[in-house]
What we know:
mainly alpha, two-stranded antiparallel sheet, two-stranded antiparallel ribbon, 3 helices, elongated, ribosomal protein, Ribosomal_mL41, transit peptide
Amino acid sequence: MVRHVTATCFRAPWPFEKKGSTGWRKNGPVVTESHKWPGQQKEFPELSPKFLGANFKQLWRYTGVASTGFNDPKTDDFVHVPEMVPELVVPDLANFELKPYVSYKTDAKIEERLRNFDKKLTKFGGNEKAAIANSKETELWPPPPIDAKILFDFFYAEKIRQAFEKGKK
C-alpha cells in the first residue's frame, strides 16, 4: 500500500543509471553512434545531419546555396551553366503613370505640408534648392533625398564649427 505519492513510488519509463559506454544513458536509450557532436545529453535538440557520423556524402560540403552548374557524370568535372546564375530583374518605372497606394488613414498633415511646400516653390520661382534652404525640416514634403552632405551636416558640422570657434578664441 502506498501512503504517499512521490517519484520513488513509481518506476521511470527507462533506467536512469549509466551502464557502460553503450546502452542506456541519463535521458533514454542511446544510438550506438559513439561520437554525436556537439553533445549526447541533448544540448542541441536539432542536430544537423552534417555532424552525425551516419550522414550522406552529398551533405558533406552542403551550404544551402543553389549550385550554378552540375557535375558531368562521365568526366566528374563541374560544368558551369551561365543560365543558372541568379540575377535580379527590376522593372524600369521611370514613365509609370500609376501612383503608389496611399492608405486613407494617412495623416492629413502630409497634404498640408505638400501644399505649403508647393507655395514655397512658386514663391522661389520653382527653384527647389532655394525652397528647401528657406524652410524648416518639418515643413518639407516630400522629404529631400539624403546624400552625403546632408548626413555630414546632421552629424558632424555643428561639432566641427564649435571646435573651430573654440580653437579660434
